[in-house]
Design a protein that fits this description.
Length: 324
């Protein structure tokens, strides 16, 4: 084994290359402190970064598939652990790799200063979104699978990236929202503490309807739906006396249809329409009564036309047309 290593050692010193190639690879572009930046150094650096990125992705898949999937924790917490483990692995590997390449980490102060200038000139939004993404992963005001609403965007969180968060609407449209929007703006999280949500249906019936019968029919329709929770139980609120209807609000709780409440509303409205028709409950439409009061202003009204003003038919009538 020692003999094999001694035989392979010259390869790592690339003495086997032609002298002109060695000269090209060792050509010094510039120096960063004691470190000479050469084509050979850049080649090693690129190879190292490619290997590091591939290793980070493999480690991420290993953690997600072999470790986190066996834990009975929320999907959002799994995602946060996976992200932090990947970031930590990448940073540790980066420092170890830089040292193995001969980079003096103290010389990175110059690079850090350059990055600071770049941030000051035009990367504020990128850094702000990245920091906001870390805050979202740590505090977890929103998590993977949560249903949120912010700035007119309503949908489910499917991905929290380094720069932006992916929100999927009910139309299966992906909306990419910058992470700092969730920090700086008000966000409604419908499923933050409990996956169950309450849905309200507005129902109006005619004034000749029995309110007690209407309440009973509303509760029966809610209880018959398999996606409506038994606890908390559905309830009915007598809302108001409207212009043409007496208005009720049916409030139900659901967890399975929390992400698509319009489907539950549609099912209940179909059921209510059928049960109201069976019990002769009127669903009125807006009506207006028009009262004409007496007035001193004469209203012109043309009388019937005299017979002489009626024009004869343009075509003669035949005997066949008069035959019954």
């Amino acid at each position: 084994m020692t003999l094999a290593a001694s035989q392979l050692a010259p390869l790592f010193h690339w003495h086997w290359l032609r002298s002109d190639w060695r000269h090209t690879l060792s050509y010094q572009f510039f120096k960063v402190g004691p470190l000479a930046v050469t084509p050979f150094f850049l080649t090693k650096a690129v190879a190292f970064f490619v290997i590091l990125i591939l290793a980070a992705k493999l480690m991420q898949r290993f953690i997600l598939s072999h470790l986190l999937d066996r834990l009975n924790i929320h999907a959002g917490l799994k995602f946060a652990i996976e992200r932090f483990a990947t970031y930590l692995f990448f940073l540790v590997g980066l420092f170890i790799g830089l040292q193995s390449l001969g980079v003096d980490l103290s010389s990175l102060v110059i690079f850090g200063s350059a990055v600071g200038v770049g941030v000051g000139l035009g990367l504020q939004n990128v850094v702000s979104n990245f920091v906001a993404g870390l805050i979202l992963l740590i505090e977890q005001p929103i998590r993977i699978g949560d249903r949120i609403e912010t700035d007119g965007v309503l949908g489910d969180i499917i991905k929290i990236g380094a720069r932006a968060t992916w929100v999927r609407t009910n139309d299966n449209v992906i909306i990419i929202v910058p992470n700092n929007k969730f920090i700086e703006s008000a966000v409604t999280n419908w499923t933050a503490n409990d996956p169950s949500v309450r849905i309200a249906l507005q129902v109006g019936v005619g004034y000749n309807s029995d309110p007690e019968l209407v309440r009973t029919l509303l509760l029966e329709a809610a209880a018959a739906h398999p996606k409506v929770l038994k606890e908390p139980a559905p309830d009915v609120i007598f809302t108001e006396y409207g212009d043409s209807t007496i208005n009720f609000t049916l409030r139900v709780w659901t967890s399975e249809l929390a992400h698509i409440p319009i489907v539950l509303k549609s099912d209940l409205y179909f059921a209510l329409f059928k049960t109201f028709a069976a019990h002769n409950i009127e669903l009125p439409f807006p009506q207006r009564d028009l009262h004409l009061r007496s007035s001193d202003i004469p209203i012109p009204f043309p009388g019937p036309k005299p017979a002489s003003d009626i024009s004869p038919p343009t075509q003669p009538i035949s005997a066949h047309d008069l035959t019954p």
